[in-house]
Amino acid sequence: MFGEAKSKTIVADYTFYFGGFTILQAKTAIELRRKSYKVVSKSKTDGLLNLVYEWSGQATSNGNFLEWRSVPSLHQNVGQRAGNVRKTVLSYKSNGELGSSDIQPPPDLSEVFPIPRGLVKETIDPLTAIVEINRRLERGMGCNGTFQVFDGRRWYDLTLADRGELTLKQTPFSSFQGKALVCAINVNMLGGHRREKSKYAETSGEKLVYVGRPLKDGPILPVGLTVETAFGTLTGHLVSIKKLDTLSTSRFKK
Fold this sequence. Notes:
The structure is a single chain. Strand 4 (55-66) and strand 5 (69-81) form a beta hairpin. The protein has one domain (2-244). By secondary structure, it is mainly β. The chain has helices at 49-52, 126-138, 199-203; strands at residues 9-18, 21-32, 36-45, 55-66, 69-81, 84-92, 98-104, 145-150, 155-168, 178-191, 207-212, 221-229, 232-244. The chain has 3 helices and 13 strands.
């Protein structure tokens, strides 16, 4: 199972491209304990995108394993663009139900759709969703299932569908080689999304995430991403991966 992987902490680096140009760098660390988990993900724009949209952010989730469920206890998200900072803090009850939320600044309802707060109590945060998906994969359940996710600003259904298996080769862009499961990802927005539709989202094709086991004694993780749009192809690749004994914020640097 995911929580029983021999390597307790995994740190993975990813690079994302659009139309062949680098646009984003991301580093994700997953700390696994017998009854709990912690995920820290740091991202920042890179390359040409920095010229028009410079952004950086960090998200952190803590939670516990309750039988087969990944139950969040705290989710925090901080993003910064052009000197403007957005913060999100979601606190959960012991049963995983959302207890409180602090969103700064509050959403502008003239720009985004409202979210009925009573309907997001039984949701999970995005990083906990990744942990839950991996636990299902480790149990041999494949890329199937729907998860209700709330990140403090957006509420959506995240649905996975199995698209088979393939063998990936190591390239100058990707460090992973070996068998990978192909998972189709669909996001159905329920609230908090922008009223004005994105031209990129409207023309995007099927979103495919490739998952594999980059370390022999480590967990199954995303190793690649492909999204076709009318404006170009979005791709993501696992660049490097390593093990740590513990997850320390001071050691977790980009």
